[in-house]
Design a protein that fits this description.
Shape: globular
Oligomer: single chain
CATH superfamily of the largest domain: Toll/interleukin-1 receptor homology (TIR) domain
Helix content: 25-40%
Largest sheet: 6 strands, mixed
Order of helices and strands: EEHHEEEHEHEHEHHEHHEEH
Number of domains: 2
Structural class: alpha/beta
Protein name: SEFIR domain-containing protein
Number of strands: 11
CATH class of the largest domain: Alpha Beta
Strand content: 15-25%
Length: about 300
């Protein structure tokens, strides 16, 4: 199927395709899509969503922005109240498509040259994107390779203070800038949405969970208070079923007197200390390396000494 169709994601925001995630309202899905193509996909059908994710994707900007288009894949889809949350990965082997070249390919790509190029939407086209790009000498191969999904991370923390919430948001922002798909309540939990469902999905669907460990977080978790208490129950349940899991990473912010606190269920596990100080930058780099699953290079093993 992937050679017959492609996704077209058109945005009027000039930063839409500079990161790894974006949103698209349900009312904009399947605009400028032929009825025969719509019948093959349904945004309420899980298998159809998986099929959409298997398609190559053209990430384009509305015409007035005069910004280059990119090629890649949708790597994750999350259904929300009125929109899709999506993660994506751009193909680094395919160069940017300049506005001039893109304009010359509109007919071949089945993209309208008037209204469609001036409206944010998600269309599915019955066109072999790889062949079109190959014929235009943009790619050397007519087969477009799939892209790896960025690591997804859920952050569990307590609302200790406005300063602490800001610190957590800054950490999440930095991680997203470094290619990690962070799920954070400040961004992804809308008014009126069910908090427990959000926490369950966050823990279940993420590759790793950062447990921001402060004195207040550990106390609330131990006493099973509020959202922190509920999340700690989820952590405990997960560990009971998989004792050896490394899914949960304790991230320590020390108290004013320098004391480190770690939740009971995570004691004995290696934690990361991100307390503000001279070592914080290197600790952050270690965290990014870990989340991207990049191992630390091990020095080569030399021969046995001849003499001792």
């Amino acid at each position: 199927m992937q050679n017959q169709y492609y996704n077209l994601l058109m945005s009027g925001n000039d930063e839409a395709w500079t990161g790894t995630s974006w949103t698209m309202g349900y009312d904009r899905v399947f605009e400028y899509t032929h009825d025969s193509v719509k019948q093959r996909f349904s945004i309420s059908d899980e298998s159809a969503l998986a099929a959409l994710m298997s398609l190559p994707t053209l990430f384009a900007y509305e015409k007035y922005l005069k910004a280059p288009a990119r090629v890649g894949r949708i790597t994750g889809l999350t259904s929300r109240q009125s929109e899709f949350g999506l993660t994506f990965a751009l193909d680094p082997t395919i160069p940017e498509i300049s506005p001039q070249v893109f304009s010359g390919l509109l007919d071949a790509l089945d993209i309208g040259s008037k209204g469609e190029v001036n409206r944010t939407h998600w269309a599915v086209k019955n066109v072999d994107l790889g062949q079109i790009l190959h014929a235009a000498r943009i790619t050397s191969n007519p087969i477009l390779a799939p892209q790896a999904r960025p690591p997804r991370v859920f952050i569990s923390y307590s609302w200790d203070s406005p300063e602490h919430r800001t610190w957590v948001a800054q950490l999440a922002t930095a991680l997203r800038r470094d290619g990690i798909d962070v799920v954070l309540d400040q961004w992804h939990l809308g008014l009126g949405e069910d908090l427990s469902t959000f926490m369950v999905r966050g823990v279940r669907e993420s590759d790793r969970v950062l447990v921001i460990s402060t004195e207040q977080y550990v106390r609330r978790g131990y006493e099973r208070q509020g959202g922190v208490g509920y999340e700690q129950m989820l952590v405990s349940s997960h560990i009971m079923h998989d004792v050896g899991t490394n899914k949960f990473i304790p991230v320590v912010r020390r108290s004013s007197v320098g004391e480190a606190f770690v939740p009971h269920d995570l004691q004995g596990r290696r934690y990361l200390d991100l307390t503000d100080g001279p070592d914080a930058e290197n600790a952050y780099k270690d965290l990014v390396r870990e989340l991207h699953n990049v191992p630390i290079p091990v020095p080569p093993l030399g021969p046995r000494p001849v003499s001792f």
